[in-house]
Specification:
The protein is α/β, with parallel strands linked by helices. The protein folds into two domains: 104 residues, Rossmann fold; 101 residues. It contains ten helices and seven strands. The strands form two sheets. Strands 2-1-3-4 form a four-stranded parallel β-sheet, sandwiched between helices. The longest helix has 18 residues. It starts with a strand and ends in a 6-residue tail after the last helix.
Length: 221
């Protein structure tokens, strides 16, 4: 059986990955470390270089358990990893890259919705860099629902989802643009809104399966 090691900034991401990979013969090991997010939010003297060294050490430690691949679901971890060398030959799967590929395949103007303000700058910087490296021009309008993510951090997912659903309902009815959600915590609402309005809302989970099974040399189920 193949082994996948996951690094999350919050435990709420775990069920999404577990449900996504249920059909596959994969043993999944989850590691949750909210420390980086806490530093970014609460430390006015945040040392980016020290954070890079911490991330490199953490990835090295996870690689020492000899998984077949490592999945990183935290945007801020991924942003710090971009400028450091991989500590091993083990594939590192960055959750946002399949998402970026999908967004960059859309030529029409589009909206990306966030509920966690602390992930916006890092994810947009990576998205713009991805588009530039691939010679793609994207027309992105960013919307932030800043009060919702605090409910996720308190374990109140239903409250988060209700607030986000009301926001997206209004957005879909007033805007005529392709819409994406930027975080795993938003996937359930995105799928509900897709079904309700008969449209496709892009999310970071749907394109992830292929990246994982390709990295682990498994067939698509």
């Amino acid at each position: 059986m193949k082994k996948l090691t996951c690094l999350h900034a919050h435990h709420s991401n775990i069920p999404y990955i577990e449900n996504l990979l249920k059909p596959y013969p994969i043993e999944i090991s989850h590691h949750v470390d909210p420390g980086l997010m806490d530093q970014i939010k609460n430390n006015p003297n945040f040392d980016r270089q020290l954070a890079k060294e911490k991330v490199h050490a953490q990835i090295t430690w996870l690689a020492s358990t000899n998984p077949d691949a490592i999945l990183i679901t935290c945007t801020n971890y991924i942003a710090l990893m971009d400028s450091i060398n991989s500590p091993s030959t083990i594939p590192l799967i960055k959750i946002d890259e399949p998402f970026f590929e999908k967004i960059c395949s859309i030529t029409a103007p589009q909206i990306i919705v966030f509920t966690n303000p602390d992930t916006v700058d890092g994810r947009l910087a990576r998205l713009n860099d991805y588009a530039k490296r691939n010679g793609i021009n994207i027309d992105i309008d960013v919307r932030i629902l800043p009060d919702a993510f605090s409910f996720i951090m308190k374990g109140l997912k239903n409250e988060h989802d209700a607030l986000l659903a009301a926001f997206m309902d209004e957005l879909i009815q007033t805007e005529k643009k392709v819409t994406s959600v930027a975080q795993l915590s938003m996937v359930d609402v995105a799928r509900q809104m897709s079904a309700k309005h008969g449209i496709h809302i892009v999310n970071p989970l749907d394109a992830l399966t292929k990246s994982i099974v390709d990295a682990m040399d498994l067939p698509i189920c």
